[in-house]
């Protein structure tokens, strides 16, 4: 069911982790040494840079276009690659390929719902690029506290990732591993969860996204970016009307009792934006 002709793998290619964040940490530490760099999206999950910093790994931020599609600025991404670049982290869906390995954060998997939008696992797009997929049950199955994730090493390039896989396996043994009870339930979770569960989740997310987008689009000075997947929405605002990010966030708390985190500190240098969870 999960290994396909476009992205085949075996049990030996899978390493369990204590959630997708732990899977990302193992992938980053195994693939890069101190002084080397990994490319991460901006705006993006701040944990990427947090995992790099204590290990002496530089996180270089490539731009996502802040328009109605949020596509990768490929020219900017390419300009950041040098001899010390070890991987590119792509959050899929949230929106490059070449000889640089990709760490695909696919924790949101099939949670896509925009018109005509489909989820394509990164590993299915090219047989020539080594890819490490990080995933888990937290988001799609709505059980974030269960902390069970995994890495899948897709290496159809003559063993390019063979040493990296050994490193990931070694890192996975630093702790006892994810909860044995949840591990035991995983086969049933993957096999027996009805498709209606995912359909209903996506319908709810799509409805919430549409409602929030329509309401915010009517507010002068706000520029919501309509999502096509996951459970977040980026909203730009006009500083001349609302002030800087700090003033905007404080005003929202005092007037509406809504708490936000401003992306310049959380989502890495995207001015005049906030992020909403719907």
Automatic annotation (TrEMBL):
<protein>
    <submittedName>
        <fullName>Aminotransferase class I/classII domain-containing protein</fullName>
    </submittedName>
</protein>
<dbReference type="InterPro" id="IPR015422">
    <property type="entry name" value="PyrdxlP-dep_Trfase_small"/>
</dbReference>
<dbReference type="InterPro" id="IPR015421">
    <property type="entry name" value="PyrdxlP-dep_Trfase_major"/>
</dbReference>
<comment type="similarity">
    <text>Belongs to the class-I pyridoxal-phosphate-dependent aminotransferase family.</text>
</comment>
<feature type="domain" description="Aminotransferase class I/classII large">
    <location>
        <begin position="101"/>
        <end position="263"/>
    </location>
</feature>
<dbReference type="GO" id="GO:0006559">
    <property type="term" value="P:L-phenylalanine catabolic process"/>
</dbReference>
<dbReference type="InterPro" id="IPR015424">
    <property type="entry name" value="PyrdxlP-dep_Trfase"/>
</dbReference>
<dbReference type="InterPro" id="IPR004838">
    <property type="entry name" value="NHTrfase_class1_PyrdxlP-BS"/>
</dbReference>
<dbReference type="GO" id="GO:0030170">
    <property type="term" value="F:pyridoxal phosphate binding"/>
</dbReference>
<dbReference type="GO" id="GO:0004838">
    <property type="term" value="F:L-tyrosine-2-oxoglutarate transaminase activity"/>
</dbReference>
<dbReference type="Pfam" id="PF00155">
    <property type="entry name" value="Aminotran_1_2"/>
</dbReference>
<dbReference type="InterPro" id="IPR004839">
    <property type="entry name" value="Aminotransferase_I/II_large"/>
</dbReference>
<dbReference type="GO" id="GO:0006572">
    <property type="term" value="P:L-tyrosine catabolic process"/>
</dbReference>
<keyword id="KW-0663">Pyridoxal phosphate</keyword>
